[in-house]
Amino acid sequence: MSDTHEHCGCGCNCGDAHDHSPMVIKVIMDNDEEIECAVLGVFEANEQEYIALAPTDDDCGDVIFYCFTEDGDTANLDVIETDDEYEAVREVFFEIYDEDLSDMLELTSEEELEELSAELDNALDELEALENATDETPRP
C-alpha cells in the first residue's frame, strides 16, 4: 500500500466515498468445508502473486496464504507447496502489511460492533413504537 490517500489511507483516492471493509470470499477446503475469509491483500513475492486471507470466524488473527492467479473473471487459489516458500511469503506479507494489518483487523471489529449496536438501537426503537401503538389502541 505504497500510494495511500491522506484521508482514509486506502490508496484509491476515493475521498472516503466507499466501504473500506475487507472483501469477503468463500474458500472451499480440501474436505469440502466452506470457510468465509476476509481478503487482507494480494501481493507479489518471488515473481509470483499470493493472496492473504483471514477466516472471519477466527478470533486468533490467523492469516492463510495461497498462490493467486486470475483467469479472466476467475480467481484461482493454489496451495503453497513447501514450508520454505510459505515462510518466505509470510515474511514478505508482514513486511508490506504489518502496520495496516493491525489497523484493518481493529477497524473490522469496531465496524462490526457499530453495526450490531445500530441494529440493536433500531430493534429497540421498533419495540418501543410497537408498545406505544399497543397502549394507544382502544380496548373493548
How many β strands by DSSP? Answer: 5
* Cα distance spanning the termini: 68 Å
Give the radius of gyration: 21 Å
* Count, helices: 1
Proportion of β residues? 25-35%
Low-confidence residue ranges: 1-7
**Biggest sheet statistics:** 5 strands, antiparallel
Order of strands, widest sheet = 1-2-3-4-5
- What is the arithmetic mean of pLDDT? 76
Order of helices and strands: EEEEEH
Global shape = elongated
Structural description of this entry:
The structure is a single chain. The chain has a domain at 24-99. Helices cover 39% and strands 27% of the residues. It is built from one helix and five strands; from the N terminus they run βββββα. By secondary structure, it is α+β, with helices and mostly antiparallel strands. It has one helix at residues 83-136; strands at residues 24-28, 34-45, 48-55, 64-71, 74-78.
Helix/strand layout:
Layout: E1 24-28, E2 34-45, E3 48-55, E4 64-71, E5 74-78, H1 83-136
Antiparallel strand pairs: 1-2, 2-3, 3-4, 4-5
Characteristics of this structure?
single chain; 140 residues; alpha+beta; 1 helix; disordered N terminus
How would you briefly describe this protein structure?
This protein has 140 residues and is an alpha+beta fold. 39% of the residues lie in helices and 27% in strands. The protein is built from one helix and five strands, in the order βββββα.
